[in-house]
Design brief:
The chain is of the alpha/beta class. The protein is built from 5 helices and 7 strands. α2 packs across α3. It is globular and about 45 Å long. This is G domain-containing protein.
Length: 212
């Protein structure tokens, strides 16, 4: 069963409700956050309105409320601007302002997908997982910080890295995920089915956590 069989529809939202499951998409500029969300939502059974059909800017918060087949709770997917860029507008200020307006009370479950481009310079401290998670946590009230974090490797279109280099970079990212208490997912290849697998794995962990 493909991704289109799992979605019933979606409607625009800016407010997080107590019954919602929230998926924050976080990561540096160029990590594929907006691309991932766009691929996930481009489906015949998903009805999304983004402005006048334009793609959201990477300097804004873009939130969509979705309904999945077989789930009672709405899933709110939130694409966030990049942190640690030291360029205006400040991503941290933009996210904090959005949080203060739309995410002030606990929801059913708060989760995060952290996107990381394997072609990034592994020596750049600004691109480390813990650095960005620390900034994100500062934007949240203490009781609203996501409890489940999955790190999702990506790769720029046209990037050429040897299998050996990919293995080294993935191992380094695994170490960063471990330090952050996060789970590393398989690399996102730009396919809708893979996007669904990423979300499904995240939601499966939510169900396990709910039962414990």
């Amino acid at each position: 069963m493909g991704l289109r069989d799992w979605f019933r529809g979606s409607k625009k939202t800016t407010t997080i409700l107590p019954t919602d499951i929230v998926v924050f998409i976080v990561g540096p500029s160029g990590s594929g956050k907006s691309r991932f969300m766009s691929i996930l939502l481009q489906n015949a059974n998903v009805h999304v309105k983004v402005g006048k059909g334009q793609r959201p800017g990477t300097t804004e918060v873009h939130a969509e409320r979705c309904q999945f087949n077989g789930m009672q709770s709405d899933i709110v997917i939130v694409d966030t601007p990049s942190f640690c860029t030291y360029m205006k507008p400040d991503g941290e200020k933009v996210v904090r302002k959005w949080m203060e307006s739309n995410y002030t009370e606990p929801c059913k479950m708060a989760t995060m997908l952290y996107m990381h481009n394997l072609a990034f310079n592994p020596e750049d401290a600004n691109l480390r997982v813990l650095n960005h998670l620390g900034v994100f946590r500062r934007t949240c009230r203490r009781n609203l910080i996501p409890s489940i974090i999955h790190v999702v490797p990506t790769l720029s279109t046209g990037a050429t890295l040897s299998d050996e280099r990919l293995g080294i970079l993935t191992a380094q990212l695994q170490s960063q995920a471990n330090d952050a208490g996060a789970r590393l997912h398989n690399t996102f290849d730009g396919e809708p089915g893979t996007a669904w697998d990423v979300i499904q794995e995240l939601l499966n962990v939510c169900e396990i956590g709910k039962q414990e």
